[in-house]
């Protein structure tokens, strides 16, 4: 492809508007994943798909960019820049419109593939277009890279605002006209006329830089995809709240954009690796669901991304070589990183959330059993929570608020306290389930830094003592953040110690008195006795009464098991009442003798109990 380099100043368009529109087009394509990631929770709910499935909204787009970029590389010397960019932007605009009107998840994914192919052509073609307008390859690459950085910085906030104020569809409705406007600009006569012969220098082979970019962007999946799902789906933040916190990542990247040329190369790599991997570990070890810890961790990730990208970008796309081919290669590498990261991280997350959802249900059941509300409300809530999990697709976090009517909780402080306890149990347990996925992303980040260490220097450096001090501070600050999280309780966050049924105290409900308190003591003692007999916990005992809940294997409910559980429960309730002096010792012994010999098999045989196997 002919790379633009005007022969005289008279032929240059000199129109900042042209540069701005092309830059916006580049920003749209680069920022798409960071914009759309804030819509994932809404897509997750609207189309009722799994975590792995919804990740394809980003995977399909990035995979198409990789395929498109690879296909374009042999053609970059044969197709004029404005033709390639214009065709790509037109395809991107049409596909964006199709995404906005998609009435099924399959249609959305198909449109995203087309959108990705258009983005690949637009990103590759924008380099010679900008070179023609700016009259310099160096300036073109800088404008191209700056546009992408700005797009990444504004992407989360834009996606969150559009999703919250309108809907996820508005993201694509905005992309379509902006891309269409860019099509008009790249076919402008002043742009088409500024075409000069291509470079004749040898082609660069920035393989190590691109390998590092694959690993770097795989790590970025953890800081974007995982963080947004955690904030919006698990912590129930609004898209705007999630966007504001996620924006700490690009802010951190922009803040250190000048350091890579002012600091020794080895120090840049070390600080970048520590910041990125450390930031992702800080996300894995969040000690509570608060914006402060999350923003600090994401800011560290951004600093690491900025340092490593600043080192790798000039190595991957040198300005003294055929920039279109080099830029297209690095486009493929970066978006391949998203694909690799999502392919490995999304299934791991889904499996962990699946297990954590069951564990969170057990924790919420314990909260209900220990609560101070009436026995009847307690039983109803325990079984409602059990059924909620049973009906939720595996890998999804159920909406616990559905079993707590807001009007009742507002009038009943005990119910409101229980609701908060249940939500906290769910929130902390499922948050902990993200740890292994964030840790895997951290390994990608550390690997990216390791590869970057062997990437040859690509431009001269000047040392700045102040910049070196800042970089050294980063190297110590990020590990200090992780240590601070451990000190704040991250090690135990999301874990719970359950009451052992066989060792439970004789008074399992010391909170209340009166008739309801007495009934709760009897009921809880009976549950403890039955669970001890069956070798399970009281929470799993209740949950196992619904086979769909996932706790069925803990207790196989046969007629004999049911009889043993009921008899053991009666005996335990009598023994606990005797120890509390609720009933006289002589009476308690008589009641125990009767409970041990009563014909429970005959009684239970006359009752139709759905969870008992025939």
Ordered list of secondary-structure elements with their pairings:
Layout: H1 16-36, H2 40-46, H3 51-72, H4 81-101, H5 105-134, H6 137-165, H7 169-186, H8 189-192, H9 207-234, H10 239-246, H11 248-255, H12 265-284, H13 291-316, H14 323-370, H15 375-391, H16 406-411, H17 413-432, H18 435-452, H19 465-487, H20 514-534, H21 538-543, H22 559-579, H23 585-597, H24 600-605
Helix pairs in contact: 1-5, 1-6, 1-7, 3-5, 3-14, 4-5, 4-7, 5-6, 5-14, 6-10, 6-11, 9-10, 9-12, 9-13, 9-14, 9-18, 11-13, 12-13, 12-18, 12-19, 13-19, 14-15, 14-17, 14-18, 20-22, 22-23
**What is the number of domains?**
4
Question: Stretches where pLDDT falls below 50 for ≥5 residues?
Answer: 1-11, 195-203
User: Helix-strand pattern, N to C?
Assistant: HHHHHHHHHHHHHHHHHHHHHHHH
Helix content: over 70%
Task: Name the CATH homologous superfamily of the largest domain.
Answer: MFS general substrate transporter like domains
User: Distance between termini?
Assistant: 75 Å
Major sheet details = none
Radius of gyration: 30 Å
Structural class: mainly alpha
Strand percentage lies at under 5%
Rough shape?
Answer: elongated
**CATH second-level architecture of the largest domain:** Up-down Bundle
How many alpha or pi helices?
A: 24
CATH topology of the largest domain: Growth Hormone, Chain: A
Count of individual beta strands: 0
Average the pLDDT over all residues and give the rounded result.
80
CATH class of the largest domain: Mainly Alpha
């Amino acid at each position: 492809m002919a790379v633009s380099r005007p022969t005289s100043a008279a032929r240059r368009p000199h129109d900042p508007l042209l540069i701005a529109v092309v830059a916006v087009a580049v920003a749209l394509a680069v920022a798409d994943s960071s914009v759309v990631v804030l819509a994932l929770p809404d897509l997750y709910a609207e189309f009722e798909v799994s975590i792995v499935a919804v990740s394809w909204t980003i995977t399909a787009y990035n995979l198409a960019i990789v395929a498109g970029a690879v296909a374009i590389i042999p053609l970059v010397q044969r197709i004029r820049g404005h033709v390639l960019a214009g065709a790509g932007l037109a395809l991107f605009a049409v596909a964006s419109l199709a995404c906005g009107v998609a009435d099924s998840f399959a249609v959305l994914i198909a449109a995203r593939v087309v959108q990705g192919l258009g983005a690949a052509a637009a990103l590759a073609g924008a380099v010679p277009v900008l070179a023609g307008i700016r009259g310099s390859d160096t300036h073109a690459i800088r404008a191209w890279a700056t546009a992408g950085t700005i797009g990444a910085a504004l992407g989360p906030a834009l996606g969150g605002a559009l999703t919250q104020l309108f809907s996820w569809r508005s993201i694509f409705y905005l992309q379509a006209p902006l891309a269409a406007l860019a099509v008009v600009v790249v076919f402008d006569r002043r742009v088409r006329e500024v075409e000069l012969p291509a470079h004749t220098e040898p082609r660069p082979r920035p393989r190590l830089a691109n390998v590092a970019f694959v690993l770097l962007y795989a790590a970025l999946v953890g800081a974007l995809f995982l963080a947004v799902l955690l904030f919006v789906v698990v912590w129930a933040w609004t898209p705007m709240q999630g966007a504001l916190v996620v924006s700490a990542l690009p802010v951190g990247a922009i803040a250190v954009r000048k350091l890579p040329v002012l600091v020794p190369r080895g120090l840049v790599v070390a600080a970048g690796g520590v910041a990125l991997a450390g930031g992702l570990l800080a996300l894995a070890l969040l000690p509570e669901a608060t914006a402060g810890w999350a923003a600090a961790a994401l800011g560290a990730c951004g600093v690491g991304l900025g340092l490593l990208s600043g080192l790798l970008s000039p190595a991957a796309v040198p300005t003294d070589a055929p920039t279109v081919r080099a830029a297209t290669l690095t486009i493929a590498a970066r978006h391949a990183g998203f694909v690799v990261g999502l392919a490995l991280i999304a299934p791991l997350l889904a499996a962990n959330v699946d297990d954590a959802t069951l564990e969170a249900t057990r924790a919420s059941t314990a909260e209900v059993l220990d609560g101070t509300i009436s026995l009847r409300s307690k039983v109803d809530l325990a079984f409602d929570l059990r059924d909620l999990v049973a009906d939720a697709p595996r890998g999804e976090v159920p909406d616990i608020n559905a079993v707590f009517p807001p009007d009742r909780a507002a009038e009943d402080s005990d119910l409101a306290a229980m609701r908060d306890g249940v939500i906290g149990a769910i929130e902390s347990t499922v948050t902990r389930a993200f740890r292994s996925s964030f840790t895997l992303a951290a390994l990608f980040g550390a690997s990216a830094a390791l590869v970057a260490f062997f990437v040859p220097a690509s431009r001269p450096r000047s040392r700045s003592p102040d910049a070196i001090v800042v970089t050294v501070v980063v190297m110590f600050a990020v590990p200090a953040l992780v240590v601070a999280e451990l000190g704040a309780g991250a090690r135990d966050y999301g874990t719970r110690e359950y009451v052992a049924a066989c060792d439970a105290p004789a008074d399992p409900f010391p909170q209340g008195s009166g008739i309801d308190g007495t009934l709760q003591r009897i009921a809880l003692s009976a549950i403890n006795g039955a669970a001890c007999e069956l070798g399970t916990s009281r929470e799993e005992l209740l949950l196992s009464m619904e086979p769909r809940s996932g706790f069925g294997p803990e207790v196989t409910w046969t007629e004999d098991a049911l009889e043993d559980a009921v008899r053991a429960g009666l005996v335990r309730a009598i023994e606990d009442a005797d120890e509390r002096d609720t009933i006289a010792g002589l009476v308690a012994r008589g009641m125990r003798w009767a409970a041990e010999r009563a014909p429970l098999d005959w009684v239970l045989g006359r009752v139709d109990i759905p969870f008992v196997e025939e």
